[in-house]
Amino acid sequence: MKILILGGGIAAISLAKFLQDKKEIKEIIILEKNEKIGGLLRSYNIKNIFYDVGPHIIFSKDKKILSIILKILGKNKIKIRRSNKILYDKKTYIKYPFENELYKLPKKDLKFALDKFLKNKFSNIKPKTMKEFFLKNFGEGIFNLYLGPYNNKIWKMNTSKLDTQMVERIPRPPDEDIINSANGAITEGYKHQLYFHYPKKGGIQSLFDAFQKKTK
Ligand SMILES: Cc1cc2nc3c(=O)[nH]c(=O)nc-3n(C[C@H](O)[C@H](O)[C@H](O)COP(=O)(O)OP(=O)(O)OC[C@H]3O[C@@H](n4cnc5c(N)ncnc54)[C@H](O)[C@@H]3O)c2cc1C
Prior knowledge:
By secondary structure, this protein is of the alpha+beta class. It folds into 2 domains: 2-75 and 201-213, Rossmann fold; 85-193, Orthogonal Bundle (protoporphyrinogen ix oxidase, domain 3), CATH 1.10.3110. 35% of the residues lie in helices and 16% in strands. The strands form 4 sheets. The chain has a two-stranded parallel sheet with strand order 1-2. Strands 3-4 form a two-stranded antiparallel ribbon. A two-stranded antiparallel sheet has the order 5-8. The longest helix has 26 residues, at 130-155. Bound molecules: flavin-adenine dinucleotide.
């Protein structure tokens, strides 16, 4: 049997790696439209610092998948604790996820975020758009101050025009976390990404390269 895979990203190279040893498969061909294979797993070396095309981290709720990826990377991996910050109003750094460090907001914004979360007029809506999902789960304050502008920028589209396909990936923090973070407590949020892996050298492209090395 011959296999033809269209497009040469990580999905293609990993599929080829896992299929190549099956005795009924005689040949696997990957057809890539670009000059280079790798798809979105691309890193550029500028003065010995590797920049990903879109920042990538390695994590998975699925322990088996994660262990396969880490095994492929061999020794070229490190485990890192998340330390992302959001630059708010050009001078204040707020930890990501935003709702876990609300107390750092200017007083007026903090009151707006907390009041609209506690008395949320959208809490009973059935979201049809990403915007409605955010309003229902975080309130108008957190949405107007952060989630709205941040997501409009990320998706290059107003969240009122996006449906709810992606929102399953956005965890809903416990109410206490949001309230406690407004009162100055340190809460973490999104724990499945709190620690993540990353290649020690070569940027995220080295994950693709590691898969490629394992193919015949
Ligand atoms: C900004 C950004 C950040 C991300 N961060 C993370 C992260 O932190 N962690 C994570 O796990 N995932 C992350 N992702 C998602 C991850 O990059 C993708 O899920 C993954 O790379 C998809 O791999 P793929 O092989 O399916 O597709 P792609 O990498 O898109 O590869 C598809 C390949 O097919 C080729 N192709 C397309 N059409 C044709 C055609 N007609 N003929 C021939 N070739 C064709 C393309 O040129 C491309 O090389 C991120 C994505 C983005 C954009």
